[in-house]
Write the structure tokens for this entry.
Amino acid sequence: MKYALGPILYYWPKKQVEEFYQLAKASNADVIYMGETVCSKRRMLRNGQWLDLAKEVAQTGKQVVLSTMALIESPSELRNMQALVDNGDFIVEANDFSAIDLAKQAKVPFVCGPSVNIYNGSALKLLVKQGMQRWVMPVELGRDWLIRLLDECSNLGIREQFEVEVFAFGHLPLAYSARCFTAQSEGRTKDECETCCIKYPQGRPIVSQEQQRLFRLNGIQTLSNDCYDLINDQASMGGLVDVLRLSPIGIDTIEHLEAFRQQNDKDRPFPTPDTVNGYWHKLAGIRQSEDEA
Amino acid sequence: MELLCPAGSLPAVKAAVDNGADAVYIGFKDATNARHFAGLNFTGRKLDKAVNYVAQHRRQLHVAINTFAHPQESQRWFDAVDKAVDMGAKALILADIALLDYASERYPDQELHLSVQASATNTASIAFYTRNFNVKRVVLPRVLSIHQVKQLARANPDVELEVFAFGSLCVMAEGRCYLSSYLTGESPNTVGACSPASFVRWQETPQGLESRLNDILIDRYQANETAGYPTLCKGRFEVDGKLGHVLEQPTSLNTLELLPELFAANIAAVKIEGRQRSPAYVEQVTRVWRQAIDAYQQSESTFQPKQQWMEQLAKLSEGSQTTLGAYAKSWQ
């Protein structure tokens, strides 16, 4: 199993981002995704600075992938994405069909990110033709779906032509909107947001009127309030999954990656209080399966 | 500009046609479409009747096959494509690239529309679908401002653009929302329904009338409040102890006042949402929009949405209120 650090989904101050990647460099992560995927108004690091940081991380021999935005609405956002695709050093993570199209045109291989709607083998076959090297399964799918899909890929003769990555830790990215919910939660509109999301380094939690943890506001993105954690489900992934993604929620995530790696060899479950794993077990995402593998 | 109206039943088809729809969109009675609700949609003789009624009145029929094929069950979705082509649908509304590929390879002359569920919001994404599948029309997600809609129209003169004109407001980019499966295990992409009715429970309590989805409290209504369907993004939740409609209020999209701008942007079609709504809804919304489009075409310079139209539409809206949604930057 390979372990990846996903792109930072939140808006962290530049210094915090740099510190995170200094630790990531020294970590056992095999793959590191870098870049802004949520909002083009988050400009603490510009493209050039992300690239410099990426080159620094890549010196360690880890695979660096430049992640691109999920919801692209303007020509300037497209230009920004084109510049990332044309970076010359790294492959990209496409989180929208626009990125897939730009990567294909530029003959740059890509990882298909979790926000692209791919639900079956025939769709994957098309993406393999476009240059996809790795597929990150949509977070709402689980083990059963993956088994059937990969069987289908075997029948289509493409099973060996790409890697499978599963989102295995972090708050789940569940939805994208035109509306900035963080700004709205502060009584502002998106145009006047003053990038207030920087105040919420793990998003802003939403609970029900009964205080049940539901979602988390992260700009135009809505996340799961609870952390998804498949650390104890790894035994059920043999022959299915090549890469596990940990979505950074802080520097602790780097330690947790090490715990994931070690857990792979042990029978004793790692304590995971207040986490969920429902999606992997074909349950509502918010549930925690009783029968962990 | 085409007025495209929804129908989830034969009476709704008739209501749309009789009240001036240029085209009607429907889905089959199975999980191949994104309004897969009990008692809705078309199969067998009712499907034949719907097709005939639309054809007799020389209107056009669009068929939505806009969920994503399940692995090892793709044939069901391919069969739906075959059936829609066989019955002479003017256009197929598709979201899954596997289906787009199947339809464009097998029926190169069939008109294909890109469903809103595919979430194409920019020129490069539109290029992907037109280049690979010869998509003729793109239905734009309800996340774009009117300025962005105009920009896309200018940048893509060879692609027809269709926009949502009226109806329930998805606050999220369509096709990119798993909130429903997070709470229930079922989402629009996987089962063709959001906040499915089978998970809904109503309960009178001392604190008020509660609406629940899979046991999770979505809202609680006091006696003087109107209760609405617990679509989860329109519930009342708390952020830092503050209670409110954190994601969106119960409200419907109404773009009637943007009609001149949509015409100026050369938008090919305005779509009314609501295949799950009653024939009476379809009748009234279709009639208002027909009148408005006709009024605009008769006199572009003096067009003003009539107060009476706006009131009628508000009555048919969630929470009896309407919004311009993402078309207005202030909403975003």
Remarks:
- Chain A has one domain: 2-172+224-281.
